[in-house]
Design goal:
The protein is 40% helix and 14% strand. The protein has 7 helices and 5 strands.
Amino acid sequence: MKTYFMRHGQTNYNVLGLCNDDPARPVHLTDLGIEQVRRAAYDLKDVALERIVVSELPRTRQTAEIINGDHHAPITAHPAINDFRTGLDGETVRQLYCAIAADPMHTRIGGGETLFEHKQRVLGFFDWLRLQPERTVLVVAHEETMRAAVAHSLGLSDQQMLALRFANAEVITFDL
């Protein structure tokens, strides 16, 4: 299966440096984010996408709908690729990094999850994805989700995973 993994375009929360894992919050693509996604859509225009899978957070669907203008593929939401549940929704990313600095993979804040739990959730998504009949799929998700996916596909350690960075609307391709 040819899988294209993409981070959503820039959002208003990215600009403000805020965490978001609540689908009800008004987080949306900025004008720059829309332009980033349009550039990615151009790069993907000749790919025969059979399905697009998004998280339950609206910014991934907004991204997918722009990409899908050239494809008209079904869009499916899957909760396993939702963003990392930080326990700090609406608070700054800086606060998150400070709170988990001592043990980034295993620190839980409030009602959130650990990065280790998030990684396991994403790996469960791969099990589901492998069972799907489509052979060419775009997954639109979040930076933490992409870290877990790419680290798994490349056999990276947790420390190496934490060092990965993905730009808004960046697309990574790999075979499952």
